[in-house]
Design brief:
By secondary structure, the chain is α/β, with parallel strands linked by helices. The protein folds into three domains: about 100 residues, no CATH class; about 160 residues, P-loop containing nucleotide triphosphate hydrolases (Rossmann fold), CATH 3.40.50.300; about 70 residues, Roll (Ubiquitin-like (UB roll)). The chain is about 30% helix and about 25% strand. The chain has ten helices and 16 strands. The strands form four sheets. The chain has a six-stranded mixed sheet, sandwiched between helices. A five-stranded mixed sheet has the order 13-12-16-14-15. Helix 8 links the parallel strand 10 and strand 11. Helix 2 crosses helix 7. The radius of gyration is 24 Å and the shape is globular. The protein starts with a helix and ends with a strand. About 5% of the residues have low confidence.
Length: about 350
């Protein structure tokens, strides 16, 4: 009986031998869908063999946002966590110092940002090797991923990204602009607001591969086969990420720029010597894409405890997620500073504030 790896290899070989054109597009799509489902099955099977129950580490999330350090063992994640927070993560010069998830809280610009130090990622993590499945379960719940390496392990960045990709974590990608509404009958109906390279027959064949006999599918982008499969898989997460290279005080390798050529704005630091840590904090803030909103009451503005809100969110979103007395009686708001056309502009709750907008609810 074939193993899952052998079945995947067989399907990949069939794809390589099949010339891609309109006539074979739906066939290749079905093969890719089967590979995606087999990889998911392989991950679950590997985790169960290692004594897992399908879950991950149990970690209480608090604060305004969460960040996870992901990287090889022994690159200084624990040292960095201790420098940025009050956490006491064990530090050592040998692999797998961190055996559990260590949380810490970083105070920055009035925000409480929870940082997680997790066991080092090794090859095969997506299949459960080295507690990889548990580690990746924490990554999936984060607001920002920091891929952290040191000057000796820069070449591991792409491999780490592959492990995350295999676990359904898509870095710096927007979710596919596809909605799939299951129906009781009527077969597959496809609506498109973009000029599609994929044929409707291909989309229908993929729906059949995912056992979806009746559905209304709306596609709002010229989608690729792989992104369409992601839309059907329904277990993908889309996260921003940042690359941090530690121990730069030891000297960078001669080819470091080539090794980092695919990385946008890597942050070079020395956690031990406190080098570039303030720049790293600012990059974390930018990566989280959040803003501060100050509340004004009786002519007093509380600048010490801002409300933290995602960029593009409205005052309605703010009210729904905060505890404040008498908020059910509010009917409008006055805004001051960034985003206001003039001081005291009266706005509805659909108003989208900017960073450091001052809000007075009416």
């Amino acid at each position: 009986m074939q193993t899952i790896d052998e079945r995947i290899a067989q399907l990949e070989e069939e794809i390589r031998k099949t010339p891609y054109h309109k006539g074979t597009e739906h066939h290749i799509g079905k093969l890719k869908a089967r590979i995606a489902k087999l990889r998911e099955e392989e991950i679950e099977e590997g985790f169960k063999k290692r004594g897992g129950s399908g879950g991950g580490y149990a970690v209480a999330k608090t604060g305004d946002a969460s960040v996870v350090f992901v990287g090889p063992p022994n690159v200084g994640k624990s040292t960095l966590l201790n420098k940025l927070t009050r956490a006491q993560s064990k530090v050592g010069d040998y692999d797998f110092t961190t055996q559990e998830v260590i949380p810490g809280m970083m105070d920055y610009k009035g925000a409480k940002i929870q940082l997680f130090d997790v066991p080092g990622i090794v090859e095969g993590a997506a299949k459960g090797k080295g507690r990889g499945r548990q580690v990746l379960s924490i990554v999936r719940t984060a607001n920002l991923v920091i891929i952290m390496v040191d000057v000796k392990t820069i070449s591991r960045i792409e491999k780490i990204k592959e492990e995350l990709f295999e676990n359904g974590i898509r870095l710096d990608q927007d979710p596919p602009r596809v909605t799939i509404a299951k129906q009781l009958s009527g077969g597959i109906k496809i609506n498109s607001t973009a000029n599609l390279s994929l044929s409707y027959d291909t989309i229908k064949s993929l729906a059949g591969e995912f056992r979806l006999p009746n559905a209304e599918i709306t596609v709002k982008e010229n989608i690729s086969l792989d992104r369409l499969i992601d839309a059907f898989m329904n277990n993908r997460v889309y996260l921003p990420y940042l690359v941090v290279v530690n121990k730069c005080d030891l000297g960078l390798p001669k080819n470091w720029q080539k090794l980092l050529s695919s990385v946008t704005e890597p942050v070079l630091i020395s956690a031990e010597n406190n080098e570039n840590l303030e720049k790293l904090k600012e990059k974390i803030w930018e990566g989280l894409k959040v803003i501060r909103v100050y509340l004004k009451r009786d002519e007093k503005v509380d600048r010490e405890s801002p409300f933290i809100l995602g960029q593009g969110k409205s005052l309605k979103d703010l009210l729904e997620n905060i505890s404040i007395c008498d908020k059910d009686t509010f009917i409008a708001a006055k805004v001051y500073g960034p985003g206001a056309k003039y001081p005291g502009q009266e706005v509805s709750f659909s108003f989208v504030p900017e960073d450091e907008t001052i809000v007075q609810f009416v």
